[in-house]
Specification:
The chain is of the alpha+beta class. The protein is 49% helix and 14% strand. α7 packs across α10 (270-287), α8 runs antiparallel to α9 (260-267) and α10 (270-287) runs parallel beside α12.
Length: 353
């Protein structure tokens, strides 16, 4: 009975707080039209950011090949997509501008690579590459991986407006990494980029924050440097060794370490890895044709977003911002001196004893 009385009281209290302003009436049709407009803006913004990531990043994958000691892959300079890349409700919107089908069609062509100069166009549907049928993104990736890296041109057949066209496309060797625009509600507007050693991820927050393409190149080249130097694998190896210690202590004493040695081992050299990525990443950006003069000031701007990074803390996974600024400033001076003297842009590696 008391609960019922309480509910009734709440009802009367709320009824006394009803809105008092007369507002314009909204029809379902108006709301639906506006919803469609917002969806169109959202998906087109996503496409624009995805293209920007590829446009800025692809030359870096070519430049980083100077320091990559594993097998490269072939690139034609095209970004492709299929229906599987999008939610079904977005497809009608996308098809106003792009050709999106079950099999790969071209979304973007980089102006500095072979596909552009050969005459391929956005919305061409790829039929064959190097005599092999292309039926999916997976088959396209596999075909490019299997092409002889010394092959200078490949035959590409596309469908354009119902007509099959044949092109001989110049190939370019690049590092076998890819770029992904990482959208996740849990990270919100985080300004971040990271890598798993194969894929370079960038958040929408990062793309919103960075206005100039050369600044985006500084970030991406840093992550590419991590991948080139196998930092992810090395960190994983350190963590595994630490976990072995955790297990050994638990077996010997019966006391759980709760994974503390694995966690600590994962942090070993993490700060040095970041310094290496800053150093090599600056070289990669320079070799790829980006102006690195403003690189130190860009990292200052990044530090302004994370004021706590100006302090050096115990077991920090990144260098402090002042430390990073000075390191990159010295690296830029080192590169410019080599450029002036006509020397190869090769970073200095430690001698292994």
């Amino acid at each position: 009975m008391k609960k019922l009385i309480g509910i009734v009281l709440v009802f009367f209290i709320l009824s006394g707080c009803t809105p008092v302003l007369k507002q314009p009436q909204l029809s379902k049709e108006e709301i639906e039209t506006e919803r469609e407009k917002q969806q169109e803006i959202a998906i087109n913004t996503y496409i624009e950011r995805k293209i920007r990531l590829y446009k800025v990043g692809l030359p870096l994958l070519k430049g980083a090949l100077n320091f990559y000691n594993k097998k490269p892959v072939i690139s034609l300079g095209i970004l492709v997509h299929t229906e599987k890349n999008y939610k079904k409700e977005y497809l009608p919107i996308l098809r106003k501008k792009y050709r999106v089908e079950e099999t790969p069609t071209i979304l973007y062509i980089h102006p500095d690579f072979g596909a552009y100069s050969s005459g391929l166009k956005v919305n061409d549907r790829i039929i064959e590459i190097d005599k092999k049928k292309i039926t999916s993104l997976e088959s396209l990736k596999k075909t490019l991986q299997e092409i002889d890296i010394n092959k200078e041109k490949v035959e590409v057949i596309v469908d354009r407006n119902g007509e099959d066209l044949k092109f001989n496309v110049q190939t370019t060797k690049i590092c076998p990494f890819s770029f992904v625009l990482y959208s996740d509600p849990r990270i919100g507007d985080t300004i971040n980029a990271f890598t798993d050693g194969q894929i370079i991820y960038a958040t929408p927050g990062l793309l919103r924050f960075i206005q100039q393409d050369k600044e985006l190149a500084f970030i991406l080249s840093h992550e590419i440097a991590h991948a080139v130097l196998d930092h992810v694998q090395k960190t994983l190896g350190n963590r595994i060794l630490g976990t072995i210690v955790d297990i050994a202590i638990t077996v010997a004493t019966g006391i759980s370490t709760q994974g503390i040695f694995g966690d600590l081992a994962g942090l070993v050299f993490s700060k040095e890895f970041e310094k290496e990525a800053d150093y090599l990443g600056t070289y990669i950006a320079a070799i790829s044709g980006y102006d690195i003069s403003d690189a130190p000031d860009f990292w200052r701007k990044m530090a302004a977003e994370y004021p706590g990074s100006t302090k050096d803390v115990f077991l920090a996974t990144h260098p402090s911002s002042p430390e990073r600024y000075i390191l990159i400033e010295k690296t830029v001076s080192e590169i410019k001196e080599k450029q002036e003297k006509g020397l190869p842009l090769s970073p200095d590696f430690k001698k292994v004893k």
